[in-house]
Write a structure and sequence with these properties.
By secondary structure, the chain is of the alpha/beta class. The chain is built from seven helices and five strands. The chain starts with a helix and ends in a 6-residue tail after the last helix.
Length: 179
């Protein structure tokens, strides 16, 4: 009888330990997933041309189209300076569909946009039509203002220079600038 009682206690203890292990493992995994979801992105979520353009059409979100080549010096500078800026990463990922095209490998796409010098940066409307483009290297601070100008649809009511002046005034007065 004592032996049966001891074996029953052992089985109950093992079952309890297994249940505790399962609960602890689940909680740890859940906490890790929550932390990962809360952490800001550390890179731009780039897409290929075709799926990116379709995502613009489907999501009714504007697009940022970046043409580069592997040999281009200023493309590498944009990668190392502009595209690692946390503000640029967050703003692009939150507000735009981001498309990256190697102009040497996807010549037909580069020709469609008449890309000659690289880098070449295009801003695409939420209907997948080009709004504007800026060839050459763009520093992070200038790109952020360009993205804000387009994302807020300010281009429909004012010139870019007016938007920049408005942003500078807002920054000087302590008022929030365009998001």
């Amino acid at each position: 009888m004592t032996r049966i009682l001891i074996m029953s206690i052992k089985k109950s203890t093992i079952s309890l330990l297994a249940a505790l292990f399962t609960i602890i493992t689940f909680c740890s995994l859940s906490h890790a997933a929550d932390k990962a979801a809360a952490a800001p992105a550390t890179s731009i979520q780039w897409q290929a041309f075709e799926p990116g353009m379709q995502a613009i059409k489907d999501g009714k979100k504007k697009g940022f189209l970046h043409f580069y080549t592997d040999w281009c010096h200023y493309c590498k500078v944009m990668n190392k300076e502009t595209f690692i800026n946390p503000q640029i990463i967050a703003y692009l990922n939150e507000n735009f569909v981001n498309i990256r095209v190697n102009a040497d490998q996807e010549k037909a796409v580069a020709e469609m946009f008449r890309v000659k010098p690289v880098p070449d940066n295009w801003f695409i409307g939420d209907d997948a039509t080009p709004l504007s483009h800026q060839p050459g290297y763009i520093p992070a601070d200038k790109l952020l203002v360009m993205l804000q100008f387009l994302h807020t649809d300010s281009f429909k009511t004012m010139k870019f220079s007016e938007f920049v002046q408005q942003q500078e005034k807002a920054a000087g007065s302590g008022k929030p600038a365009a998001k």
